[in-house]
Amino acid sequence: MIDDNRTDEVIEELKGEFDEIDSSPAIDFTLANFLVQEGNMTESIKYYVSAIRKFPDFLRARKNLGLIYVQDGNFSEALPHLVKCVELGGADGDLYGLIGYCYLNAELYASALDAYRMALIFEPNSKDWRLGKAQCLISLEKYDDAIAMLTELIQMDKSKKDFWLFQANAYLASEKSEDAAANLFLVDLMEQADANSKLLLGDIYVTLELPHLAVPQYLDVLDSDEKLPVSKAVRIVEVLARSTNWKEASEVSPKIKEKYADQFSPEEANKFDSLEPKFSSHWIVRKKPSKPWRNLSNEIRLMDEYSYY
Q1: Is-contact 137 112, C-beta < 8 A?
Q2: Domain architecture of the chain: domains with CATH
Q3: 3-state secondary structure 158-209
Q4: Mean pLDDT across the stretch 86-92?
Q5: What is the pLDDT of residue 165?
């Protein structure tokens, strides 16, 4: 093992031996590895590429280069190297999982699903690969399968809020609003809810004709230090007004006006001002539908607006 104090010296020595044409792939690969060790990821790419150019079947160089590209978010560059590693006999759970992640980010969900399935054969207990598989299933609209996979993940780690949130989105997409609300409520109880999950829970309560439960969720968001876009603050009133829950709208509107009025665009100000007179007369008109609002298009709109995948 080389002393840390000598690493820079060794890197300079290897750079002195490097040549675009004549140096051996092993020298290029070793130099790249030392640069990675020092955190110089971008510089290391040049030497991994050189090693691969001189020896195209250099498995470790391709895998390391693919990993750097993934960490850099350059999935299109990473994918060919990772796939080549499989061809060269380097298949394992990590490799298939990374391939799945690249396909997922390229929105090639069927290919990503196949890769995650292979990754789980090698590493059946991997939460990352299970979550990736669940994301693919949601994107492919295989909601029941996604819900089942996320149930397994929740059983593996009940404290992980992302599992509950992804499953809530799958429930929404499959018209199971009550189950989605239950998941979001549990995240709130775990004190891990952020503004988006609280707003989503509030909106679901409104669609389930439980506006009195929505108000605390909305007020929590408005009272928090979390930065909320003005458009989302105004939207709270719109959601309540659209369902003619004027009493509840009147409970949240003062807080919105106090905190956001000076940030309203002219359009938002006009919209808010047009609704305010109706809040004051909420006891005169209060629509009470005879059965829960079961509008799939609305639920999908909610899912898109607060999507966690």
Answers
A1: no
A2: 176-309 (1.25.40)
A3: CCCHHHHHHHHHHHHHCCCHHHHHHHHHHHHHCCCCCHHHHHHHHHHHHHCC
A4: 96
A5: 97
Question: What pLDDT, in 10s, does the model give residues 194-239?
Answer: 999 999 999 999 999 999 999 999 999 999 988 889 999 999 999 9
For 226, other C-beta atoms within 10 Å of its C-beta total 12
Residue type, 285: V
Q: Is 165 in contact with 150 (CB distance < 8 Å)?
A: no
Listed range (8-12, 76-80, 264-268) with the worst mean pLDDT: 8-12
CB distance 82 to 50 below 8 Å: no
Tokens, residue 80? 């060919």
Q: pTM score > 0.85 for this model?
A: no
Question: Distance (Å, rounded) from C-alpha 250 to C-alpha 280?
Answer: 7
Sequence-separated (6 or more) residues with CB below 8 Å from residue 249: 237, 240, 241, 275, 278, 279, 282
Query: Does residue 282 surpass a pLDDT of 60?
Result: no
Structure-token pair, residue 81? 């190297």
Sign of CA dihedral 258, 259, 262, 268: negative
Quick one: which of 242, 182, 239, 183 has its CA closest to 215? 239
Task: Give CA–CA dist 245/237, Å, rounded.
Answer: 9
Q: What is the DSSP letter of 251?
A: H
Query: Distance (Å, rounded) from C-alpha 253 to C-alpha 257?
Result: 6
Per-residue pLDDT at 133: 98
